[in-house]
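Section: Multi-chain targets

For targets with more than one molecule, the full set of components is provided together so that the structure can be written out for the assembly as a whole rather than chain by chain. Components appear in the order listed by the source. The example entry contains three components.
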Amino acid sequence: MTAVWLNQLLQGVMLGGLYTLFAIGLSLSAGVMRFVNIAHGDFIVLTCYALLLLTTLLGLSPVAATLIVLPFAFLFGFGLQRFLLQRVVGENVLLVILVTFALSIIIENGLLEGFGADPQKISGGWMETATVALGEGINVGLFQIVTFVAAVVLVAALDLLLYRTGIGAKIRAVSDDVAAANLIGLSSVRIYAVAMGITFVTIGIAAGFVSIWTNFDPASGPTRLLVAFEVIVMGGLGSLWGSLAGGIVLGVAQAVGGQFDIAWQIMAGHIVFLIVLALRPQGLFPKY
Amino acid sequence: MEATAESPLLAVEGVSVFYGNFRAIDRVDITVAAGEIVSIIGANGAGKSTLLKAVIGQAERVEGRILFAGDDIIGRTTEAIVASGVMLVPEGRRLFPSLTVEENLRLGWDVGRKGEFGFADIWRLFPALAERKRQKAGSLSGGQQQMVALGRALLANPRLLLCDEISLGLAPLVINELYMLIPQIKARGIGILIVEQDIERSLAVADRFYCLLEGRVSLVGCPGEVTRDQVIKHYFGL
Amino acid sequence: MGPKLILNGARAVFAAGVVAMAAAPYLFGANHVVLLTEFMSMLVLAIMWNLLAGYADIVTVGQHAYVGVGAYAFFGFAALADLNPYLSIPLAGLVAFAIAVPTMILVFRLRTAYLAIGTWVVAELLMLASGKLNAWGGGSGTSLPISIVLSFGRVRGERLATIYWLAFGLAAIAMLATYFLLRSRIGIGLTAMRDNEEGAAAIGVNITYARILCFLGTAPFLGMAGAIITLQKLRIAPPASFSIIDWTVFIIFNVVIGGIGSFEGPIIGTIVYFLLRQYLAGLGAWHLILLGSFSIIIILIEKRGLWGLIRRGLGDDLIPIAHKPSATFDGAVKANISAAFDNRR
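Its structure, encoded as tokens over all components, is:
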């Protein structure tokens, strides 16, 4: 009996790794530009479809497809921020919410028109089915472990980028005080665009993993967004490692709920989120 | 282009700055020569900060000409203006609180013209900061923050330094220390434009001064050549 | 034609429209009455969202929660508890209010966009929870019992008219309530705060209290709209009753296009939506793409939407909410200022 629960717990932690991948980009863009991109989840799904095209039409492996997508993801994020979102940032936050909300709807319906409503999935080959035995009846999927490790590596890499590089210092500067940054000659417009580019690179990585982990369809975006959102609020706004903690909490909550049925799996996540919000609204590792 | 005796380092010519329809600065003429300290005094709302913002490229609607070393810089990005040798010490310090002292200073180095003034000079000039390199700027005292703000500006190796109310909120002793640095900066050939509400301080250090009243220049002169009453009259517009 | 004439002409048209709507079941056939009922329900939703997002500075993307709660509560009271169906409507509103209180306590810990998504999370949770209620048909929902439907009128025409008047009544009350709120001190405080004046605090309005009032106040209207919508759809089901597309997405687009933060905006937006719906329906997924794109364009060009564009020509609001200082007040101030200058000289 304990083995079953332990398995579920481990599954939850691994799922937390996947959820951290969803959340890390949102954490960066929300922390730096102080707005939440409601289309975040939809962009993950959009990238999944891009990967689908690359793997089916060009026969590329998922890894190769993801690596190819990443530089384009950076450019796309850079451009999106520079030419669309920059026009509404810093003003009334209502405008940003509306624009990103509208973007979300446009992407979902565009994908629906282009690909239809059928769920899709990318095959992960041997790695997807391999399991690692960790003890008496405790088995974890290899792919799940790789995903979790990827999440930890990504958080560490972003941490390094933000705190040990010149561009990282500039990104932190504009997120502290954008008006002051402008006054001393930092181009906040360009730095925001770079930050969004980095966010979209994480979106690309997240898509690479989630497209293999589970099915996706045009309407999957909001679920991913709500997950990312709950992770960053529980983890503590502005904290990268907090996102990892938040991800694990959500993953474990869902794994426990999932013991009953799929509806309870998702509800358990929402309920735990609301409980954390009630008891510790600043999150587990608050920055601000 | 270089500044010569005929073409000063900074020449503000007939400049008006608008916030929407409101004319905050009205056809103002100001010059600053290399190695000259020019003070701008005036009451709150007279337009002093606005003038500095216009020079650094952060005012939305500017008419007239702002010539820096002969080139009109109106319309250029602040990034470009700073890179060409103008740097602002903003009102209220405006450091980045979550960044360390060193990181705040390094930003000044990154955005400016790389020149002979470097970190070694900063630590020599501000020993108190040398002891606090890795401290978060948000936890410094007001005086220390002002030093970082000034140091940040100096690390950009500017030819023209704009100082916006650097004495605001500081203890008199601290202000003294700060103002002792001004002549040292002037000695390096840097032109300095100081905006101050503290008239005494400001006139004590200036070579020339302008008095702004409701967006216009009401008085120009050298501190030694005008009387106190004259200054008060043009400050308040009585 | 002077602008004043056009303005008064527009006001007359509006007044005539209201009268026509009040008499709609006498003026139009059954199909149109059904359409107008739907229009009235959506108008209520639009007015409420606009009040929160345009005046109280609370952007929500989760108001479909209360529509669903209202639908399910109505079913519970009327079909399960056998209460008077007419009474069940305001009771449904009450339940929506009851749900709004703990929701507010939780999500008000978040700011701006986070608050918006927080309301969305709550809506998702409520939808999933409603799918667990077996008496309400569980995950696939159930139909409204015929007896309930017939209690609003045995004859179809009479029934449609009754339901229409309920919807029209709700919309009228919603408009009046909003009108009086916006003209009250609270309303002026909210408008001042929204327009970024520091006068809000000076007027003595507690902004937090005002926002709480607005958030809680919209819930019963949304709940009752949910009950009326159920009367039209004749079914409850989690995805339909709690539909984010129908009760949030379309509403947001409509209000944005019509004009956020104005009294006329939600009305115009909903009218435009219904006029376009004919043509949009045939486009499949494209109609949402078009609506979404159009919303983005409108936001970037004229934040006050279509009404903002029209108002430039009209010169004043159709429904005057803003207080204008009186001529005598102006004169007194002018005299005061002159005196100050005279004394200076």
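The interface with chain B takes residues 166, 169-170, 172-173, 176-177, 179-187 of chain A (CB under 8 Å).
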